[in-house]
Each structure stands twice: as C-alpha cells, then as structure tokens.
Write a structure and sequence with these properties.
alpha/beta; 3 domains; seven-stranded parallel β-sheet; four-stranded antiparallel β-sheet
C-alpha cells in the first residue's frame, strides 16, 4: 500500500521564500508527488517552477490538464488556473475564483482529500488572511495529515494562524523540519483507510471548482441562502459551515471566507465612495457653470442659488475625501 504520497502545499504572501526552502530540503528519491498553489497575478508568466527546480533536486513544472501524476515531481499551479487532483491525473481548469484568488489553495486541498483521503499531507505556509483553512479541514476529515508552518517563522502569519485556530493540526513546524517530516510520511503507510463515501460537501465543492456539473442548485444542497450578494457576480451567496468556519459561495461558484468577504465589501465600499466623490465634484463644476450663465444674464438670485448648490456639493466631496484619506492612512499604519 502506498504511503502518504500526495503532498499538497499552499502559500501566499511570503510564500516564495518558504517554498524555495522546502524544495531545497526535499530528497531526490521522495516517493511522493508534490502539488503547490501560490497566489500569483493572473497576467504574466510564473517563474516559480524554475525557482523550485533550481533550489532543490526535484523537477518542478506547470502541468498540462490531464497529465498523469508521477512521484518525485513538483506540480505548480499555473497563473489564472486551478490546480486539482483527479484520481491519478492532474486537472488544470480556470473555474470560479475562490476567496478572490485563482489559483487558490482550498480547491487543491479538497480535490486531494476527495480522491486520496488518508494518503494526503496538507501543508499551509506563509500567507495573509485564511486561504488553506477550509481545505485543510477537508484533508483532516478524510483522514489525511495537517501540517502548518510555525507562524513566528512565517513572513506573513495569517494563513498559518487561521489553520491552527480552526483545524486540529498534526504538526506545527519550521520549514527546516517540514521537509524531513514529509519525506518520512511518504514512506509510512497511512493508519486510516480510505473512507467509502466522500462527504457531499467536499464532493460538491470539488465539482464546482472543476466545473464538472452545470446544475445551478448544487451549492444550495450544502448551504442556506444568506442576505449577502456575491461581490463578483452579484448573485445570491449561500452560507456554508465547516465547524466554526463560516464561508460563502454563490451559485456559479465564487467562494469567500468571512475575512475575504469583509475585504471584498470594503473594496466595494471604497469604489462607491470614490464614484460618489467624483459625481459630487462634477456636479459642483456643472452648477458653477450655471451660476456663471445666470450672472451673465443679470440674474443674481438664480446665480446665488447655483453657487449655494455648488458649495454644498464641494463640501460633501471634501467629506468623502477626508474619509478616504483617513482609510489610506490606516492601511499604511
């Protein structure tokens, strides 16, 4: 029987250094395949496979959709695509964004948990917010092993701390020790057996991520309608609960944690405030032109009314600018 030969790794901010250190310490004869998701911009090339290949003994590459899984290799999610696992092959699909990312960590972890259960080792490294937590819960639910980078070592502690707070983690280690742990686990037979039936929630969320099913009612089977709308498509968001972890997903598949939902709402509010500020300034310019015309026609009363409206619009715009400026200062602090 194979050991823990499916290693899924997720990282975000500060993740390049962490992943490079991990790749450097992996053995050349690792009897496992490693799958990596790092949050990267959708546009432009990713140099992560080259960095990881040069850093350590295992070859790394962006896989093709349907490529067979081979041990002793590192599969890196390509920009603007999901990396998923389907039985003995790799899936590379665009799919809906999750927590505002594509690629995202959670879909990879869930797909591995669905297909390989106890053979999976999930590793969460440096990153902001909480991507990886829900996926690591799925790994644990299917009998896999949860590993988290020591937050005090991570450049960004958000992802490791969220995992530790919400998942019954098996190992909390610095990068230097994670590689040797993975090498050891790859040779050990899993204690648990593969569960017979995959939980409906995991199965449905993997299908949504892989766009395997066009049934728009799928998400409704695992969640209940919320009062919120999707920041991406403005459709209904459904509440999904993983223990204490609250998440949201719309019918087409966009997904959010509570933290990423709050972040998306904050950005939407800021856009609305800037739009309102611009509209008020345009209104002030227009009304002042009308005031000038009224002066030119010897109608001082009408001109005064227009001047008052212009001043009111400018005062409202100044108020909004003050709010936006204070937000920028808070972000810097």
């Amino acid at each position: 029987m194979p050991g823990h030969d499916i290693i899924v790794v997720g990282a975000s901010a500060g993740g390049v250094e962490a992943l490079t250190q991990l790749a450097r310490r992996l053995p050349v004869d690792l009897p496992a395949a490693v799958f990596v998701v790092l949050h990267i911009p959708a546009q432009g090339p990713s140099y992560l496979p080259d960095l990881l290949s040069r850093a350590g003994p295992l070859p790394a590459a962006h896989p093709e959709d349907g490529e067979p899984i081979k041990r002793g290799r590192i599969y890196v999610a390509p920009p603007d695509n999901r990396l998923l696992i389907e039985d003995s092959s790799v899936r590379v699909v665009r799919g809906p964004m999750e927590k505002r990312y594509r690629p995202a960590v959670d879909p990879l972890f869930r797909s591995a948990a669905r297909e390989h259960g106890p053979r999976v080792v999930g590793v969460v490294l440096s990153g902001a917010l909480d991507d990886g937590t829900a996926g690591l819960l799925a790994v644990k639910k299917q009998g896999g092993i949860a590993v988290v980078q020591e937050p005090r070592e991570a450049a960004f502690q958000g992802m490791p701390r969220s995992a530790l707070e919400n998942v019954e983690v098996d190992y909390r280690l610095p990068i230097a020790e994670i590689a040797s742990l993975v090498a050891r686990l790859a040779k050990e037979t899993p204690k648990e057996k593969l569960a017979g039936r995959v939980p409906e929630q995991i199965d449905i969320e993997v299908k949504v991520a892989a766009m395997e099913d066009t049934d728009t009612n799928l998400v409704g089977k695992i969640g209940k309608p919320s009062v919120f709308s999707c920041p991406d498509c403005h459709g209904i968001l459904y509440e999904i609960h993983n223990g204490e972890v609250l998440r949201f997903r719309c019918q087409v598949g966009h997904a959010y944690s509570a933290d990423s939902m709050l972040s998306a709402q904050t950005e939407a509010l800021e856009r609305a405030l800037w739009a309102a500020c611009r509209s008020l300034e345009e209104r002030a310019d227009l009304v002042r032109k009308l005031a000038e015309r009224a002066h030119g026609r010897n109608n001082p009363k009408l001109a005064a009314r227009f001047e008052a409206r212009a001043q009111e619009a400018e005062e409202h715009a100044d108020t909004l600018r003050s709010i936006l400026k204070s937000k920028d200062e808070d972000d810097v602090a």
